[in-house]
Amino acid sequence: MDAQPVIAPVVISGGGLVGALAALLLARAQPQWQIHVLEPNEQGPAQDQRVIALAAATVELLQQHGLWAELAQQSCGIEHIHVSDRQQLGMTRLHAQQHGVAALGQVIAAAQLNQVLYQACQQQANIVWHSGARFISTGAERDYREVVFEQHGETHQLRTQLLVGADGQRSEVRSQLGIQITSTDYQQVGIVGILHLQNSLNGWAYERFTDSGPIALLPMTNNRASLVWSVNPAMAEQLQHCDEASFVRQCQQAFGYRAGLFSGIEQRAHYPLQLHLAEHSLAHRALLIGNASHTLHPIAGQGFNLGVRDAIALRDSLACSDDAGSYRSVSGYWQLRAADYRTIIGLTDGLVRGFSNQLWPLTAVRSIALFGLDQLGPVRNQFARQTMGFKA
Ligand SMILES: Cc1cc2nc3c(=O)[nH]c(=O)nc-3n(C[C@H](O)[C@H](O)[C@H](O)COP(=O)(O)OP(=O)(O)OC[C@H]3O[C@@H](n4cnc5c(N)ncnc54)[C@H](O)[C@@H]3O)c2cc1C
């Protein structure tokens, strides 16, 4: 008689930032489980050019898992945040010291974080990392899922109690599960790049709402700043084709001189700004995490931080489970996540809609809101806690 195939507790499709972190947290919490990760890239996830801001709570988690030491030398702390509306009076400031922390967050190259997570997964004995493996399809039985993937031109199968889709914005798991997405196109393009500055930002991060759209500057080492500038598609087209000097001039004109003189730009890239939300994140013996379930506007720098909390909730909801894919485990996950999704997605969407509009009543209201936030300690504290990724 043929032996029954082994049923793995968890198979994660996608070894990007969120998938790799989820694998690590689960593998360390459940040393008796084997966690399988399918990742199409051979040497870990793709080298992502973007620079991301990590909330203080994310940094704390990385520290707890011994992952921060290597990243610390390459990161830059956000000690102050300055949010303002160009040509309006309103502004608000947050200071790490006032909130009893050394930094409100850290700025790091996504590629470096990817590599550290990938290496940690390679060293974790109970993670089986399938390099060059692409998830293809899945079928559900009562007690398990069949997972079909392609690796080096061959088709393979795995059985699992729980399939986790962490395969990004164009998630194949999501589409195989028949989960629809709702999309909001903000008719804006995010231009990102590394700005060279005459002077260091000294730990200040800026979010400035301008006529052309919001501009965020995040402090980096060596007199550099990470730029995220959201503009309309026509302006994006123009900026994409202009030379470096003209780009820097236009950016300086739009932002003003609050952060000093801009002297150059490198690694320019463009992203259409859209909100993609899976209509739900659960299916029988399957769930979606990270960008597979939500892709946010980068304006509030919350996308990955939200994915980190997905990974933590996944670990916690499976903590006492002997069947990772049971209805109780999967629905327990969603109970831990639903409220956070509503808050962060509402906050980000509200920021995009409220602050990309130049109609007089809206600019007046947001100036009052920013001014009020600066004056009202408790409200500002709550905003700061959310920014740092702690529960409000
Ligand atoms: C311009 C910009 C700036 C941003 N800034 C910030 C910020 O400051 N702070 C923040 O928190 N977030 C930020 N974000 C969001 C953040 O980058 C994302 O939330 C994060 O990268 C999502 O990670 P993920 O692992 O879910 O998805 P991804 O990084 O897309 O990873 C998906 C993985 O799945 C793999 N994959 C794809 N297809 C398959 C398949 N068929 N089978 C198996 N694997 C597959 C891919 O190879 C990849 O490794 C920003 C985003 C943008 C666009």
Report on the architecture of this protein:
35% of the residues lie in helices and 34% in strands. It is an alpha+beta fold and 392 residues long. The protein has two domains: 184 residues, FAD/NAD(P)-binding domain (3-Layer(bba) Sandwich); 152 residues, D-Amino Acid Oxidase, Chain A, domain 2 (2-Layer Sandwich). The strands form three sheets. Strands 1, 2, 8, 9, 10, 11, 17 and 18 form an eight-stranded mixed beta sheet that branches. Helix 1 links the parallel strand 1 and strand 2. Helix 1 runs parallel beside helix 8 and helix 8 packs antiparallel against helix 9. The model has no long low-confidence stretch (mean pLDDT 87). Flavin-adenine dinucleotide binds next to helix 1, strand 2, strand 3, strand 9 and strand 12. The site of flavin-adenine dinucleotide has 37 residues, from helix 1, strand 2, strand 3, strand 9 and strand 12.
Oligomer type: single chain
Number of helices: 11
What's the CATH topology label of the largest domain?
Answer: FAD/NAD(P)-binding domain
| Alpha-beta classification | alpha+beta
CATH structural class of the largest domain: Alpha Beta
Q: What number of structural domains do the residues give? A: 2
- Give the ligands present: flavin-adenine dinucleotide
User: Between the first and last Cα atoms, what is the distance in angstroms?
Assistant: 57 Å
H/E element order: EHEEHHEEEEHEEEEHEEEEHHEEEEHHHH
Strand element count: 19
Query: Under the CATH scheme, which architecture of the largest domain would be assigned?
Result: 3-Layer(bba) Sandwich
Shape: elongated
Please outline the major beta sheet: 8 strands, mixed
Detail the poorly predicted runs: none
CATH homologous superfamily label of the largest domain: FAD/NAD(P)-binding domain
Helix content percent band: 25-40%
Radius of gyration: 22 Å
Which percent range describes the beta-strand content? Answer: 25-35%
Average pLDDT figure: 87
